[in-house]
Amino acid sequence: MTTLMYKFHQINLYILTDKMTVHSLYILSKSGGLIYQHDHNIPTVEHEKTFSYPLEVKLEVQNRNIVVSYGQRDGIKVGHTLMAVNGMKVTGQQLEDGRDAMLASMFYPLYALACQLSPEQRSSGIEILEADNFRMNCFQTLTGVKFMVISDVKQTGIDNLLHRVYEIYSDFALKNPFYSLEMPIRCELFDEHLKSALEQAERLGISNI
Amino acid sequence: MSRQSMRANDPKKVSGELFTLTYGSLVAQLLKDYENVDDVNRQLERMGYNIGMRLIEDFLARANPAFKLYLGVSPSIGSWSPGGDEFSVVLETNPMAEFVELPDHCLGLRYSNIMAGVIRGACEMVQLEVMAWFIADQLKGDNVTEIRVKFVKRLEDAIPAGED
Q1: A29, B80, B130, B141: which could form a disulfide with B123 (CB 3.0–4.6 Å)?
Q2: pLDDT of the residue at B149
Q3: What InterPro entries does this protein's entry cite (chain B) (predicted)?
Q4: Within 10 Å of residue A6's Cβ, how many Cβ atoms?
Q5: Is residue A1 part of a domain?
Q6: What is the pLDDT of residue A41?
Q7: C-alpha distance from A128 to closest chain B C-alpha (Å)
Q8: What per-residue confidence (pLDDT) applies to A137?
Q9: Which of B58, B61, B160 is nearest residue A30 as measured by Cβ atoms?
């Protein structure tokens, strides 16, 4: 008779409720290239649980994240995102390199198409795109730079946020003498200010930021 | 609160004198390096052009009068050409040249030529090709400082969708 040895691993699941309000931000240069992308995740409610094998919850991959699909228990609900296992961060399924850039750049011709389709002359193109679980706001400057924010449908004050991001772009990217136009923005000060603007927009959710 | 004291309390504002001194030493160094005033004029214009391309976004993001915002003066606009494609920007005082006296050997120097470049660079980013040049300069004994701006053409292929 053969016996099988099972090794039991204790797995710490670090589970996060999906309550982000501003999901991500994209900046497209005037020639349509993606020059900045930021995924904004704020952990709101966190649960840390120790499970032993086999897992009592079922996980599956959804929208680049690993989420709970079955087995609601101890505050962990279906739809929560797995953040870490044994202290190691779970980054979810990342899009392969360049796919973000490709997806974002795809918006450029769509925008131009919308302008052409418009029955009225001088249409502004796509400003808001709304789905049942997210909304995309786009703001194009006179110079042709596009700022796009993807947020929860309930999030308000996005217009102000977009304007604030424009100011941050003009300050911390363009006024940095070592930033070259049309190139991806890699400026720490820009990142910092952007993050705080996003957080503020989420906290207030209202018009004044 | 008066404007002066507001300025003094704003940590982001630097002294205007520091700015004029910095610009002065830049021009002086360029003169030393190039020795030829035409080259210096060209370099200043090119620097201004690069500044203008960036500054336009700041101007659009804040929507304040540009000369007031960046130089603290309010120029008047006038002398429109009959075709309406050319005008003058007239500055009663030029804050950049407050302490400057042009030496005899560089009378051809357009000291504030960086401004002409800024105007050209900024307009180009909003799809307007313009020419900008100085036609009067207080440093050369004129009553006012005057920049002439001439519209050349709309840069059609650079116009972003939805802005035509």
Answers
A1: B130
A2: 92
A3: Bet3, NO_sig/Golgi_transp_ligand-bd, TRAPP_component
A4: 8
A5: no
A6: 63
A7: 14
A8: 92
A9: B160
